[in-house]
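User: quick one, fold this
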Amino acid sequence: MTILRKCLCALPKLGPGFVSLLALSISTWAQGNVTTIRVGAFPNITHAQAMVGKANGWFDKAMGPNVKVQWTSFNAGPSAIEALFAGAIDMTYVGPNPAINGYVRSNGEALRVVAGAASGGASLIVRNDAGIQGPQDFHGKRVASPQFGNTQDVALRNWLKKNGLKTNDKGGDVQIVPMANPDQLTLFLKKDLDAAWAPEPWATRLIHEGNGRIFVDERSLWPNGQFVIGLLVVNNKFLKAHPDLVKNWIRAHIELSDWINAHPAEAKKLLNEQIQRETNKALPADVLNEAFSRLQITYDPLHSALNTAAQQAFEDGFLGRQMPDLSGLYDLTLLNQVLAEKKRKAMQ
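Assistant:
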C-alpha cells in the first residue's frame, strides 16, 4: 500500500486528500475480493497432504494472496459430509464410503470426487489378551469402528459377514461399537474393547500402546494391496462456481503428494507436528514410521477400488434396496487437465 500511495502521489493535479481516499478505496476493494475456501480434514496420516499442507502453508502459497484457506478438523467421514451438505465447508478429504453415501443421499447432486489422496492404512487390531486366534473367536466380542457408516465400519461389517459372523443388530452376537479413535485406545487399555478396525496412525497406536496386534491388514483383502482410504471431495455447487480455485487446489495437491513421496523424512516430521497441534500429542517415531509404512500417498482416485467399496456398502445395507448408479460420482476433468499440463497419464 505504501508503494501504491507513492505512485498515486506522483500523479499530477491530485491533492493528498484525493490520493488517500483513492488508496483506501483500492485497499477496501482488494480485501473485499478475497475468496475463502473452506476445507475439511482429519488429524491422521491418511490425510497426509492436508496435514503437511497445513503445517508448511503449501496450499496458502499455491492458492495465492486472494484466497484464504479455512480448515475444519473432523474425526470421521460422515461428520465431514454432513458439514459439506450444510454448506459449512466447500471440500474435504474423506474416505470412500461417506463420499458414496453423500452422493447417494443427495441423488448425485451434492458432491464430486476430484482426486485421490491415499491407499492402504487401515487394519483390524485385536487385543492380545482377548482370546482371539481366528475369525470364530469374534463371537461375543466388542469391536470398534470410528463411526457408523464410515469406511472402516463398512470394511469391518463386510469382513464379519464373509467370515460367517453376524452383528447383534442382525441376530448375531458380535457387537460393533462406533467411537472416536482416541476412545478406542482408552477402552483397549481398560479391556472394554476386544478389537477395532482402525485407520493409521491409530491402528499402530493400538499395537504399541494398547497391547494389540494386527489380525487383518486390510491391504491383504484387495488386488495389488490397493484400496481407497482417502479422497478429495468437492461440493458440486462450489466446483461449478469456482473451477479455477478447485483446479489450483488439485495442482497443489498433486505437487504436495509428489513432495511427500520424495521427502518422506521431512514430510513425516511436518505431519507429526500438525497432528500434535490438533490432538495435543505427537506420535512416537517408531509409531509414525510403522504407520506410514502401511500407507501409500497418491492422487490416483483408484476408481475400480471405490466401486468395490460401494458394492460392499450396498451389501451392508447402507445404500438402499437397489444398487445406486454411481457413474457421476467422479469428476476427474480438472485432475486430468493438470496431469496433461505435467505430461502425465490421465486417470480413469
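User: anything notable?
Assistant: Confidence is low (pLDDT under 50) at residues 1-31.
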